[in-house]
Amino acid sequence: MTDNIEKFLAALSGSLADGTFVKLSLGNYRGVDEHLQKILVRLVNTKKGTRLYFLYRGDTRDTAKNFDFETGVGLVAEALENGFFSGHLFTTANDLQLEIGKKGKSRLNIGKATFKVLPSLDHDREKTYQVDVGSFYLKALGITDDNGRVRDKQQDKWRQINKFVEVLASLVDKSELKEKRSLSIVDMGSGKGYLTFAAYDYFKNIRGVDVSITGVDTKDQLIDLSNEIAKACGFDGLQFAEGTIAGFDVPDVDILIALHACNTATDDAIFKGISSNAQLIVAAPCCHQEIRPQISSPPMFRELLRHGVMLERFAEMLTDGIRSLLLERSGYATKLFEFVSTEHTPKNNMLVGTRMAEPASPSEFQQQLDQLKTEFGITHQRLETLLNAGVQNHATSV
Ligand SMILES: C[S@@+](CC[C@H](N)C(=O)[O-])C[C@H]1O[C@@H](n2cnc3c(N)ncnc32)[C@H](O)[C@@H]1O
């Protein structure tokens, strides 16, 4: 081992001992593993204390493991002897860049520190978490190109993926799921699976949670493609199933996701979430076609709603307002907010239900619902129909 490698390893051990370590990466790999490309190392808080989190980046899959400091430093030493020809260590004191030449000659540059403060190791970290642009699944799904850059046409989708993961992380942190070490999730109307993959990658590889996610969609070609990519990524707990939302048997799940599922498919999904006792129901409704033809404007609203565009928007508001009340009636606390700017997509409302330990009185919400429906002449709404039928079925079966 050359002096420079020894100095590099000593700096790594020293930074871990004095608490100045920020992160480390090993690259320029020319070893025997045909898939391995990089090793990225950072600190992570675990139940056993602070550990080194090693992310082994491959061309088609990433794997991650935590190690104590001593083992971690040993593994870095081993990697530098077995195929990695460069190392970059960031500490709050200095940046160290190690380059190993062909005949074992090496160079070590010590420069000014890029990072002056240590990254947070607790869950606040997720608030600033960005999806790793180098992830293989992003390339396989066409979000990034062969150079790992986000394609111009995919910039909006890319923003949406990041925002979705950020919102999901924050919702989980504010719920009873925060400390759960295993999570079961269903994504209804998963489409090409961008968000499903990102959610899996986040829970599995960033939070280190034992996660199982099933994406459901009617399009068999998308299902086959998504399953192939999940397999190629080594995402063992991620699977996609062909079928309708209404027909999919949902076991008890922690989180039910339904993003941009068309029209009343969103109601089918929310109903499945309520029936399967999901702790969190996260829906971004898409087109709203059921309520609009039923609306008969009360005199006070007639002037406002004679414009088609206003009626359209109002129908959306009414639909999502009814859904929110129905979730509340079913024991969920709800919130409705814009999750990405309208500049990037018009389908940007997110309706979130969090199951409450002590549900509020359903009759209060029923009263508000009845009032709204009477006022605007609404005779039926899919989620209400499903829930009421569910209650009746339950009542006749007990
Ligand atoms: C607009 S895409 C959204 C995909 C993904 N959730 C996203 O937000 O990127 C809607 C997807 O929902 C699926 N879908 C619509 N209605 C469905 C239903 N009733 N059952 C299953 N899938 C449905 C469609 O096939 C389509 O792939």
Outline of the structure:
This protein is 38% helix and 26% strand.
Structure, explained:
Strand 3 and strand 4 form a beta hairpin. The protein has a seven-stranded antiparallel β-sheet with strand order 4-3-2-1-5-6-7, with helices on one face. It has a seven-stranded mixed β-sheet with strand order 10-9-8-11-12-14-13, sandwiched between helices. The N and C termini lie far apart (74 Å). It is α/β, with parallel strands linked by helices and 398 residues long. Helix 1 runs antiparallel to helix 2 and helix 9 runs antiparallel to helix 10. The chain folds into two domains: 3-112, no CATH class; 127-397, Rossmann fold, CATH 3.40.50. It has eleven helices and 14 strands. It binds S-adenosylmethionine (SAM). Residues 189-191, 194-195, 216-219, 244-245, 259-262, 265, 268, 286 line the site of S-adenosylmethionine.
